[in-house]
Here is the input.
Amino acid sequence: MLTLILLVYFVSFLDKPEKTAPQLSPRAVEQRAKWHIQTDGMDYPVCGMYKDSLLRMGVKIYHQSRWFNGVTCEMDEKTASKVAGLKFVTNVEMTRDNTVPGNAPKKRIRELEMSESATNKTQEQLATYNLMPLHKAGYEGQGILMAICDGGFYDAQTLSCFRQKDLELGHFDFTDDADDFYGPTGAHGTYCLSTISGILDSSYYGAATKAQYYLMRSEEDATESPKEMDNLVAALEKADSLGVNIFSVSLGYAMFDNDAWSLKKSELDGQTTRVSRAATIAARKGMLVCVAAGNDGNNDWKKISVPADADSVLTVGAVGVDSLIGSFSSWGPSADGRVKPDVCAVGVKTTLIKTDGTISQGNGTSFATPLLAGLAACLWSALPDENAMQIRDRIIRSADRYINPDSYRYGYGIPDAWKAYTMIPTGTENIEFGIQRTDSRKILRHGQLIILREGQMYDVLGRKIE
Here is the structure.
Protein backbone atom coordinates (compact mmCIF):
# COMPACT_ATOMS: atom_id res chain seq x y z
CA MET A 1 0.00 0.00 0.00
CA LEU A 2 1.39 3.36 -1.09
CA THR A 3 1.84 5.80 1.78
CA LEU A 4 1.31 9.42 0.80
CA ILE A 5 3.86 11.85 2.21
CA LEU A 6 2.24 15.02 3.48
CA LEU A 7 4.23 18.18 2.82
CA VAL A 8 3.65 21.79 3.86
CA TYR A 9 2.93 24.53 1.33
CA PHE A 10 2.03 28.19 1.13
CA VAL A 11 -0.81 28.63 -1.34
CA SER A 12 -1.30 32.14 -2.74
CA PHE A 13 -4.73 33.31 -3.87
CA LEU A 14 -5.65 35.55 -6.78
CA ASP A 15 -7.82 38.09 -5.02
CA LYS A 16 -10.24 38.81 -2.15
CA PRO A 17 -13.69 38.81 -3.73
CA GLU A 18 -15.40 38.76 -0.33
CA LYS A 19 -15.12 42.16 1.34
CA THR A 20 -15.54 40.82 4.85
CA ALA A 21 -14.92 43.35 7.60
CA PRO A 22 -11.36 43.37 8.99
CA GLN A 23 -11.07 41.20 12.11
CA LEU A 24 -9.52 43.76 14.43
CA SER A 25 -9.98 43.96 18.19
CA PRO A 26 -11.47 47.12 19.73
CA ARG A 27 -7.97 48.01 20.94
CA ALA A 28 -6.55 47.57 17.42
CA VAL A 29 -9.29 49.81 15.99
CA GLU A 30 -8.57 52.41 18.65
CA GLN A 31 -4.82 52.27 17.95
CA ARG A 32 -5.35 52.60 14.20
CA ALA A 33 -7.57 55.65 14.74
CA LYS A 34 -5.09 57.23 17.15
CA TRP A 35 -2.22 56.99 14.67
CA HIS A 36 -4.39 57.76 11.59
CA ILE A 37 -3.61 54.38 10.01
CA GLN A 38 -6.07 53.62 7.24
CA THR A 39 -7.61 50.21 6.63
CA ASP A 40 -6.49 48.75 3.29
CA GLY A 41 -6.79 45.56 1.25
CA MET A 42 -4.28 43.79 3.45
CA ASP A 43 -6.68 44.03 6.38
CA TYR A 44 -9.45 42.02 4.70
CA PRO A 45 -9.48 38.30 5.55
CA VAL A 46 -8.62 35.56 3.07
CA CYS A 47 -11.63 34.49 0.99
CA GLY A 48 -13.68 31.86 2.83
CA MET A 49 -14.86 30.23 -0.42
CA TYR A 50 -11.26 29.64 -1.48
CA LYS A 51 -10.40 28.05 1.85
CA ASP A 52 -13.50 25.85 1.71
CA SER A 53 -12.48 24.62 -1.73
CA LEU A 54 -9.12 23.48 -0.38
CA LEU A 55 -10.73 21.81 2.62
CA ARG A 56 -13.03 19.80 0.33
CA MET A 57 -9.91 18.52 -1.45
CA GLY A 58 -8.56 17.14 1.83
CA VAL A 59 -6.10 19.96 2.44
CA LYS A 60 -5.28 20.72 6.09
CA ILE A 61 -5.00 24.46 6.70
CA TYR A 62 -2.70 25.55 9.53
CA HIS A 63 -3.12 29.29 9.29
CA GLN A 64 -3.92 32.04 6.83
CA SER A 65 -2.22 35.29 5.89
CA ARG A 66 -4.38 38.27 5.07
CA TRP A 67 -1.28 40.33 4.31
CA PHE A 68 -0.05 37.89 1.65
CA ASN A 69 -3.50 36.54 0.71
CA GLY A 70 -2.79 32.86 1.17
CA VAL A 71 -2.74 29.90 3.53
CA THR A 72 -0.11 27.65 5.07
CA CYS A 73 -1.39 24.12 4.59
CA GLU A 74 -0.48 20.42 4.45
CA MET A 75 -1.17 18.05 1.54
CA ASP A 76 0.53 15.45 -0.64
CA GLU A 77 2.26 16.32 -3.91
CA LYS A 78 -0.59 14.99 -6.07
CA THR A 79 -3.11 17.21 -4.31
CA ALA A 80 -0.68 20.13 -4.51
CA SER A 81 -0.59 19.73 -8.27
CA LYS A 82 -4.40 19.87 -8.41
CA VAL A 83 -4.49 22.92 -6.15
CA ALA A 84 -2.00 24.68 -8.43
CA GLY A 85 -4.47 24.27 -11.29
CA LEU A 86 -7.32 26.06 -9.54
CA LYS A 87 -8.35 29.34 -11.16
CA PHE A 88 -8.10 31.31 -7.93
CA VAL A 89 -4.61 30.03 -7.02
CA THR A 90 -1.58 31.98 -8.25
CA ASN A 91 1.25 30.01 -6.63
CA VAL A 92 1.91 26.85 -4.60
CA GLU A 93 5.22 26.94 -2.73
CA MET A 94 6.55 24.07 -0.61
CA THR A 95 7.69 25.38 2.76
CA ARG A 96 8.53 22.18 4.62
CA ASP A 97 9.83 19.00 3.05
CA ASN A 98 8.95 16.22 5.45
CA THR A 99 11.20 13.79 3.58
CA VAL A 100 14.29 15.69 4.79
CA PRO A 101 15.21 14.84 8.38
CA GLY A 102 15.39 17.64 10.88
CA ASN A 103 18.81 18.99 11.78
CA ALA A 104 18.66 20.78 15.11
CA PRO A 105 22.17 22.32 14.82
CA LYS A 106 20.82 24.54 12.04
CA LYS A 107 18.57 26.34 14.49
CA ARG A 108 19.46 30.01 14.37
CA ILE A 109 19.76 32.67 17.05
CA ARG A 110 20.12 30.53 20.16
CA GLU A 111 23.35 31.03 22.04
CA LEU A 112 22.62 29.46 25.39
CA GLU A 113 25.85 29.35 27.35
CA MET A 114 24.00 29.42 30.64
CA SER A 115 25.78 29.98 33.93
CA GLU A 116 24.68 27.70 36.76
CA SER A 117 24.55 30.65 39.12
CA ALA A 118 24.88 34.37 38.87
CA THR A 119 25.02 37.32 41.16
CA ASN A 120 22.36 39.95 40.62
CA LYS A 121 23.44 42.28 37.87
CA THR A 122 20.09 43.56 36.72
CA GLN A 123 20.83 47.08 37.91
CA GLU A 124 24.11 47.08 36.03
CA GLN A 125 22.30 45.60 33.03
CA LEU A 126 19.60 48.27 32.98
CA ALA A 127 22.14 51.01 33.72
CA THR A 128 23.97 50.11 30.48
CA TYR A 129 21.24 51.93 28.60
CA ASN A 130 20.28 54.27 31.45
CA LEU A 131 16.79 52.87 32.01
CA MET A 132 16.55 53.29 35.77
CA PRO A 133 15.77 57.05 35.68
CA LEU A 134 12.64 56.20 33.68
CA HIS A 135 11.73 53.57 36.27
CA LYS A 136 12.25 56.08 39.06
CA ALA A 137 10.03 58.53 37.22
CA GLY A 138 7.27 55.90 37.27
CA TYR A 139 7.45 54.66 33.68
CA GLU A 140 7.71 50.87 33.60
CA GLY A 141 5.65 49.96 30.54
CA GLN A 142 2.15 50.56 31.93
CA GLY A 143 -0.39 51.08 29.15
CA ILE A 144 1.80 49.28 26.61
CA LEU A 145 0.81 45.93 25.10
CA MET A 146 3.65 43.65 24.02
CA ALA A 147 3.94 40.33 22.20
CA ILE A 148 6.90 38.04 22.93
CA CYS A 149 7.32 35.53 20.11
CA ASP A 150 9.63 32.55 20.55
CA GLY A 151 9.94 28.78 20.54
CA GLY A 152 8.96 27.69 24.04
CA PHE A 153 7.65 29.09 27.31
CA TYR A 154 8.20 26.22 29.68
CA ASP A 155 6.53 26.85 33.07
CA ALA A 156 6.02 30.55 32.31
CA GLN A 157 2.47 30.32 33.70
CA THR A 158 3.60 29.05 37.11
CA LEU A 159 6.91 30.78 37.85
CA SER A 160 6.66 33.09 40.83
CA CYS A 161 8.94 35.64 39.17
CA PHE A 162 6.00 36.55 36.93
CA ARG A 163 4.02 37.48 39.99
CA GLN A 164 1.75 40.01 38.34
CA LYS A 165 -0.47 37.37 36.75
CA ASP A 166 -2.84 39.89 35.19
CA LEU A 167 -0.10 41.06 32.83
CA GLU A 168 -0.29 37.98 30.58
CA LEU A 169 -3.42 38.40 28.49
CA GLY A 170 -3.20 35.12 26.59
CA HIS A 171 -1.06 32.89 24.42
CA PHE A 172 -1.09 31.57 20.86
CA ASP A 173 0.69 28.62 19.22
CA PHE A 174 1.31 28.96 15.48
CA THR A 175 3.26 25.70 15.18
CA ASP A 176 1.89 22.26 14.35
CA ASP A 177 3.64 20.68 17.34
CA ALA A 178 1.19 18.91 19.63
CA ASP A 179 2.93 19.84 22.86
CA ASP A 180 1.32 21.86 25.61
CA PHE A 181 2.13 25.56 25.17
CA TYR A 182 3.86 25.74 28.56
CA GLY A 183 5.31 22.24 28.23
CA PRO A 184 8.95 21.10 28.16
CA THR A 185 9.51 21.72 24.42
CA GLY A 186 11.75 24.67 25.27
CA ALA A 187 12.39 27.43 27.78
CA HIS A 188 14.03 29.97 25.50
CA GLY A 189 10.93 32.18 25.49
CA THR A 190 10.68 32.00 29.28
CA TYR A 191 14.24 33.31 29.61
CA CYS A 192 13.44 36.16 27.22
CA LEU A 193 10.22 36.99 29.08
CA SER A 194 12.11 37.15 32.37
CA THR A 195 14.27 40.02 31.10
CA ILE A 196 11.09 42.04 30.53
CA SER A 197 8.66 41.01 33.24
CA GLY A 198 10.59 39.05 35.88
CA ILE A 199 10.73 40.16 39.52
CA LEU A 200 12.52 38.36 42.36
CA ASP A 201 12.19 40.48 45.48
CA SER A 202 15.16 42.87 45.60
CA SER A 203 17.47 40.56 43.66
CA TYR A 204 16.05 40.79 40.15
CA TYR A 205 14.00 43.33 38.21
CA GLY A 206 12.96 43.21 34.56
CA ALA A 207 13.03 46.03 32.07
CA ALA A 208 9.28 46.67 31.77
CA THR A 209 7.48 44.90 34.61
CA LYS A 210 4.20 46.78 34.20
CA ALA A 211 3.66 46.15 30.49
CA GLN A 212 0.93 43.69 29.53
CA TYR A 213 1.79 40.99 27.03
CA TYR A 214 0.74 38.06 24.87
CA LEU A 215 3.01 35.04 24.44
CA MET A 216 3.31 33.58 20.94
CA ARG A 217 5.06 30.45 19.75
CA SER A 218 6.13 30.22 16.11
CA GLU A 219 9.36 28.19 16.28
CA GLU A 220 9.04 24.42 15.83
CA ASP A 221 11.29 22.16 17.81
CA ALA A 222 12.50 19.40 15.50
CA THR A 223 13.04 21.05 12.12
CA GLU A 224 14.25 24.24 10.49
CA SER A 225 12.12 25.13 7.49
CA PRO A 226 10.57 28.11 5.70
CA LYS A 227 7.23 27.12 7.27
CA GLU A 228 8.52 28.59 10.51
CA MET A 229 8.90 31.95 8.79
CA ASP A 230 5.22 31.77 7.79
CA ASN A 231 4.38 30.83 11.39
CA LEU A 232 6.06 34.07 12.40
CA VAL A 233 4.09 35.97 9.75
CA ALA A 234 0.92 34.57 11.32
CA ALA A 235 2.11 35.74 14.75
CA LEU A 236 2.78 39.26 13.45
CA GLU A 237 -0.66 39.42 11.87
CA LYS A 238 -2.30 38.20 15.06
CA ALA A 239 -0.43 40.81 17.08
CA ASP A 240 -1.63 43.49 14.68
CA SER A 241 -5.23 42.32 15.06
CA LEU A 242 -4.91 42.51 18.86
CA GLY A 243 -3.56 46.08 18.87
CA VAL A 244 -0.10 45.10 20.13
CA ASN A 245 2.30 48.04 20.46
CA ILE A 246 5.66 46.23 20.66
CA PHE A 247 6.54 42.87 19.11
CA SER A 248 9.73 41.24 20.41
CA VAL A 249 11.04 38.24 18.49
CA SER A 250 14.24 36.37 19.31
CA LEU A 251 14.21 34.14 16.25
CA GLY A 252 15.90 34.25 12.87
CA TYR A 253 16.30 32.22 9.69
CA ALA A 254 19.00 31.68 7.11
CA MET A 255 19.90 27.96 6.84
CA PHE A 256 17.32 25.18 6.50
CA ASP A 257 17.23 21.39 6.75
CA ASN A 258 16.72 21.31 3.00
CA ASP A 259 19.82 23.16 1.77
CA ALA A 260 18.04 24.15 -1.44
CA TRP A 261 15.96 26.60 0.59
CA SER A 262 18.84 28.21 2.49
CA LEU A 263 19.18 31.92 1.91
CA LYS A 264 21.92 33.75 0.08
CA LYS A 265 23.47 36.82 1.68
CA SER A 266 22.26 38.86 -1.28
CA GLU A 267 18.69 38.07 -0.15
CA LEU A 268 19.10 39.92 3.16
CA ASP A 269 17.50 43.00 1.63
CA GLY A 270 14.26 43.16 3.62
CA GLN A 271 12.27 42.42 0.46
CA THR A 272 12.98 38.80 -0.45
CA THR A 273 11.36 36.75 2.31
CA ARG A 274 7.72 36.98 3.38
CA VAL A 275 8.71 37.22 7.01
CA SER A 276 10.92 40.27 6.46
CA ARG A 277 8.23 41.97 4.41
CA ALA A 278 5.71 41.09 7.13
CA ALA A 279 7.89 42.73 9.79
CA THR A 280 7.96 45.90 7.70
CA ILE A 281 4.19 45.75 7.17
CA ALA A 282 3.71 45.36 10.93
CA ALA A 283 5.79 48.49 11.48
CA ARG A 284 3.63 50.39 9.01
CA LYS A 285 0.50 49.15 10.76
CA GLY A 286 1.70 50.86 13.94
CA MET A 287 3.82 48.26 15.77
CA LEU A 288 7.38 48.66 16.97
CA VAL A 289 9.05 45.39 15.96
CA CYS A 290 12.25 44.39 17.80
CA VAL A 291 14.25 41.58 16.17
CA ALA A 292 17.37 39.71 17.27
CA ALA A 293 20.30 40.25 14.90
CA GLY A 294 21.49 36.66 15.31
CA ASN A 295 24.43 34.83 16.87
CA ASP A 296 26.48 33.99 13.78
CA GLY A 297 29.36 36.42 14.24
CA ASN A 298 31.79 33.60 14.98
CA ASN A 299 30.79 31.18 12.23
CA ASP A 300 30.97 31.01 8.44
CA TRP A 301 27.60 32.70 7.85
CA LYS A 302 28.59 35.68 10.03
CA LYS A 303 25.72 37.90 8.91
CA ILE A 304 22.32 38.81 10.28
CA SER A 305 19.39 36.51 9.53
CA VAL A 306 15.78 37.27 8.58
CA PRO A 307 13.65 39.13 9.60
CA ALA A 308 16.55 41.12 11.09
CA ASP A 309 17.06 42.57 7.59
CA ALA A 310 13.61 44.18 7.58
CA ASP A 311 13.11 47.89 7.11
CA SER A 312 11.57 50.03 9.89
CA VAL A 313 12.24 47.48 12.67
CA LEU A 314 14.78 47.68 15.48
CA THR A 315 17.38 44.97 14.88
CA VAL A 316 19.31 44.34 18.08
CA GLY A 317 22.93 43.31 18.52
CA ALA A 318 24.53 42.06 21.75
CA VAL A 319 27.00 43.89 24.00
CA GLY A 320 28.17 43.25 27.54
CA VAL A 321 27.74 45.59 30.49
CA ASP A 322 31.19 46.85 29.47
CA SER A 323 29.51 48.11 26.24
CA LEU A 324 31.75 45.88 24.07
CA ILE A 325 30.17 43.90 21.25
CA GLY A 326 29.81 40.15 21.74
CA SER A 327 31.97 38.18 19.33
CA PHE A 328 28.94 36.03 18.40
CA SER A 329 26.70 38.99 17.58
CA SER A 330 25.84 38.87 13.87
CA TRP A 331 27.24 41.36 11.39
CA GLY A 332 25.55 43.85 9.08
CA PRO A 333 24.85 45.69 6.98
CA SER A 334 21.76 44.50 5.10
CA ALA A 335 22.29 43.44 1.49
CA ASP A 336 21.03 46.83 0.29
CA GLY A 337 23.44 48.71 2.57
CA ARG A 338 21.22 49.72 5.50
CA VAL A 339 22.76 49.92 8.98
CA LYS A 340 22.27 46.60 10.81
CA PRO A 341 22.02 45.97 13.64
CA ASP A 342 20.20 49.20 14.40
CA VAL A 343 21.11 49.29 18.10
CA CYS A 344 22.61 47.08 20.81
CA ALA A 345 21.61 45.96 24.30
CA VAL A 346 23.07 43.59 26.88
CA GLY A 347 23.29 40.13 25.35
CA VAL A 348 26.66 39.05 26.76
CA LYS A 349 26.14 37.39 30.15
CA THR A 350 22.60 38.71 30.29
CA THR A 351 21.11 38.25 33.74
CA LEU A 352 17.86 36.29 33.51
CA ILE A 353 15.69 33.83 35.41
CA LYS A 354 15.70 30.09 34.70
CA THR A 355 12.69 27.82 34.89
CA ASP A 356 13.70 26.62 38.35
CA GLY A 357 13.31 30.21 39.57
CA THR A 358 17.03 30.89 40.04
CA ILE A 359 18.99 33.80 38.62
CA SER A 360 21.41 32.87 35.86
CA GLN A 361 23.16 34.39 32.86
CA GLY A 362 23.07 33.61 29.16
CA ASN A 363 24.59 34.85 25.92
CA GLY A 364 22.68 35.85 22.83
CA THR A 365 21.08 38.62 20.85
CA SER A 366 17.96 36.68 21.91
CA PHE A 367 18.27 38.28 25.34
CA ALA A 368 19.41 41.70 24.14
CA THR A 369 16.21 41.99 22.10
CA PRO A 370 13.61 41.73 24.88
CA LEU A 371 15.73 44.06 27.01
CA LEU A 372 15.60 46.61 24.21
CA ALA A 373 11.87 45.99 23.78
CA GLY A 374 11.49 46.64 27.51
CA LEU A 375 13.29 49.96 27.14
CA ALA A 376 10.92 50.84 24.30
CA ALA A 377 7.90 49.93 26.44
CA CYS A 378 9.02 52.23 29.26
CA LEU A 379 9.77 55.06 26.83
CA TRP A 380 6.40 54.68 25.08
CA SER A 381 4.70 54.55 28.47
CA ALA A 382 6.23 57.95 29.16
CA LEU A 383 5.30 59.33 25.73
CA PRO A 384 1.97 57.68 24.85
CA ASP A 385 0.99 60.32 22.31
CA GLU A 386 3.88 59.40 20.03
CA ASN A 387 3.69 56.62 17.46
CA ALA A 388 5.92 53.60 16.89
CA MET A 389 8.21 55.31 14.38
CA GLN A 390 8.68 58.29 16.66
CA ILE A 391 9.65 55.99 19.54
CA ARG A 392 12.00 54.11 17.22
CA ASP A 393 13.54 57.39 16.09
CA ARG A 394 14.13 58.50 19.69
CA ILE A 395 15.84 55.22 20.56
CA ILE A 396 18.17 55.42 17.57
CA ARG A 397 18.98 59.12 18.02
CA SER A 398 19.81 58.55 21.68
CA ALA A 399 22.38 55.84 20.88
CA ASP A 400 26.06 56.49 21.53
CA ARG A 401 27.15 55.98 17.90
CA TYR A 402 24.29 57.85 16.28
CA ILE A 403 26.56 60.50 14.73
CA ASN A 404 29.00 57.92 13.35
CA PRO A 405 27.24 54.53 13.08
CA ASP A 406 29.07 51.25 12.61
CA SER A 407 27.14 49.40 9.91
CA TYR A 408 28.91 46.11 10.63
CA ARG A 409 28.73 45.44 14.39
CA TYR A 410 27.26 48.12 16.68
CA GLY A 411 24.92 49.94 14.33
CA TYR A 412 23.93 53.21 16.01
CA GLY A 413 25.18 51.79 19.29
CA ILE A 414 23.69 51.57 22.76
CA PRO A 415 20.60 53.72 23.39
CA ASP A 416 20.19 55.97 26.41
CA ALA A 417 16.63 55.66 27.69
CA TRP A 418 16.55 58.93 29.60
CA LYS A 419 18.16 60.84 26.76
CA ALA A 420 15.58 59.33 24.38
CA TYR A 421 12.82 60.58 26.70
CA THR A 422 14.15 64.11 27.12
CA MET A 423 15.28 64.89 23.59
CA ILE A 424 13.34 67.23 21.36
CA PRO A 425 11.45 65.37 18.59
CA THR A 426 12.81 65.67 15.08
CA GLY A 427 11.44 68.75 13.31
CA THR A 428 9.81 70.39 16.31
CA GLU A 429 10.40 74.04 17.20
CA ASN A 430 8.37 73.98 20.40
CA ILE A 431 10.34 72.98 23.48
CA GLU A 432 7.18 71.95 25.35
CA PHE A 433 6.22 69.09 23.07
CA GLY A 434 4.56 65.72 22.93
CA ILE A 435 2.24 64.36 25.58
CA GLN A 436 0.22 66.92 27.48
CA ARG A 437 0.89 65.80 31.07
CA THR A 438 0.19 67.64 34.26
CA ASP A 439 2.99 65.88 36.12
CA SER A 440 5.91 66.55 33.81
CA ARG A 441 7.07 69.09 31.23
CA LYS A 442 10.26 70.21 29.54
CA ILE A 443 11.70 73.73 29.59
CA LEU A 444 14.91 75.47 28.63
CA ARG A 445 16.85 77.22 31.40
CA HIS A 446 20.05 79.03 30.44
CA GLY A 447 20.21 76.92 27.30
CA GLN A 448 19.91 73.66 29.24
CA LEU A 449 16.99 71.25 28.87
CA ILE A 450 15.34 70.79 32.27
CA ILE A 451 12.63 68.30 33.19
CA LEU A 452 10.00 69.57 35.65
CA ARG A 453 8.15 66.82 37.48
CA GLU A 454 5.97 67.26 40.55
CA GLY A 455 7.77 70.45 41.53
CA GLN A 456 11.26 68.92 41.19
CA MET A 457 13.82 69.73 38.48
CA TYR A 458 15.93 67.05 36.74
CA ASP A 459 18.70 67.22 34.15
CA VAL A 460 18.73 65.06 31.00
CA LEU A 461 20.51 62.27 32.89
CA GLY A 462 17.74 62.06 35.44
CA ARG A 463 19.68 63.73 38.23
CA LYS A 464 17.89 66.09 40.61
CA ILE A 465 18.79 69.75 40.34
CA GLU A 466 18.75 71.45 43.73
Remarks:
- DSSP finds eleven helices and 19 strands in the chain.
